[in-house]
Recover the amino acids of this structure.
């Protein structure tokens, strides 16, 4: 598989965050770094995904998950939604987010924070509009990315695997 390497020494630490093994007692997690996934695996999966599950938390601590369309650019997930949605209200009160893809076999789970995109520069709005057109076949136009409701998610921790537990990999930021 092109996205994996057989040993930690083969990884280029300048090409992304440094991988390690997740702490998962009782699951037979290897103790060495053989078979860890490359960051490029996460980047490719996130860029190719058509939908993302976004989980937020309300003021009472209750989780809320919704599937959203989104754009993965520069290791960030951009997604929108109406300002009247529970997701929007939850993110306004608490930016903590868990994002994952639909597959239970080629797993990517990201934890971090999402904040409303405020005053993006014109270059970014043009890139987002072009990426939407390419990915979904339509785009709301660059100015839509300057409107309320657009969020940008940045990961703090990522877990991924394709053959659990052999290649289970964690990245921290």
């Amino acid at each position: 598989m092109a996205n994996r390497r057989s040993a930690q020494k083969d990884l280029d630490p300048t090409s992304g965050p440094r991988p390690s093994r997740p702490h998962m007692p009782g699951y037979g997690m290897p103790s060495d770094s053989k078979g860890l996934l490359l960051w490029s695996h996460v980047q490719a999966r996130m860029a190719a995904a058509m939908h993302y599950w976004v989980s937020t938390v309300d003021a009472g601590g209750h989780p809320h998950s919704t599937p959203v369309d989104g754009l993965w650019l520069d290791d960030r997930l951009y997604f929108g939604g109406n300002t009247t949605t529970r997701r929007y209200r939850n993110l306004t009160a608490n930016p903590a987010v868990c994002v994952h893809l639909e597959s239970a076999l080629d797993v990517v789970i990201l934890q971090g924070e999402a904040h409303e995109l405020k005053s993006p520069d014109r270059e970014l709005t043009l890139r987002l509009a072009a990426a939407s057109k390419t990915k979904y076949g339509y785009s709301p136009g660059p100015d839509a990315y300057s409107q309320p409701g657009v969020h940008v998610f940045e990961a703090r921790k990522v877990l991924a695997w394709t053959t659990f537990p052999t290649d289970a990999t964690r990245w921290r930021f």
